Amino acid sequence: MEYALAHGYDWIYILDADSIAEPKAIENLVECYLSLSPELQTSTWWLSSLLKDANTGFLHHGCVFAPHGVKILNPPPQPSRYRCDLNIWSGSFYRLDAVSKVGLPDLDYVLDWGDMIYGYEGMVRGYTGFANQSSIVIHNMHAFERRGLGGRMVNVYCSQPMRSYYFWRNSIYFWIYKYRRAHLVMPIMTHFLRFCWWLIRVALFVRAPVPTLWACLRGIWDGINRRLENRY
User: Fold this and answer.
1) What is the residue range of 107's domain?
2) Residues 63 and 177 in one domain
3) CB 54 within 8 Å of CB 137
4) Together in a domain, 122 and 22
5) What pTM does this model have?
């Protein structure tokens, strides 16, 4: 983004090295933007492709902020365009004159949740984001397995300790110190409950769970104490 701003680009499309944009992915995002009213074009700073997991075919539609925290979207196939507050970096299409006003992403977030926090930074400055289901990116999501627990199936995410550290450090830091909306206590409580449930699943189902458990605990501690300069 810094390079694109310095060299006068209008838009930047972000794609992970192991992601594959299907034909017309960018073209469909441009068409989506041009179909907006002039008022919406002015307020729209970001468009997102629909992310399709390379292994399972799972579709990740992005998220919006809700009173309890982050709500994962599951829209109907039509209309193909829908409002979206935040999504994964890969497949994101940013309008750079808006980026210049929002500012560049914080490098201290390193690996995880920086994309979510950046979506919030644009939203609180009055900008809008959209996702478009006609623009598809094949992406390697975090792997997860289905395991049985007390007669029900649960998802166990096979996240490496390093990603677990940054996920919990950055997310709890965001909810405590950056998120400023009408409902403040509920997202923090929901996140702590999710953290406890995450630890239980790691302890029960992950082979050699100690490194991941330690990474989660250290991450939540560094986030609470605003130690974003720390690294895994």
Assistant:
1) 2-139
2) no
3) no
4) yes
5) 0.90
Residues 191 and 157 both lie in one domain? yes
CB 153 within 8 A of CB 146: yes
Mark which of 89, 117, 139 sits at the end of a domain. Answer: 139
Residue after which a domain boundary falls, among 139, 173, 195: 139
pLDDT tens per residue across all 232 residues of the chain: 999 999 999 999 999 999 999 999 999 999 999 999 999 999 999 999 999 999 889 899 999 988 888 999 999 999 999 999 999 999 999 999 999 999 999 999 998 999 999 999 999 999 999 999 999 999 988 655 656 656 566 666 678 899 999 999 999 999 999 998 767 788 999 999 999 988 988 888 888 899 999 999 999 999 999 999 999 9
Query: What's the rounded Cα separation, in Å, for the pair 112 and 162?
Result: 10
125 and 205 share one domain: no
Query: Exposed, middle or buried by CB within 10 Å (0-12, 13-18, 19+), for 153?
Result: exposed
Looking at this protein, which amino acid is placed at residue 216?
Answer: C
Q: Number of structural domains, the chain?
A: 2
Question: Residues for the chain: how many in total?
Answer: 232
Task: Return the closest-CA partner of residue 131 out of 50, 20, 14.
Answer: 50
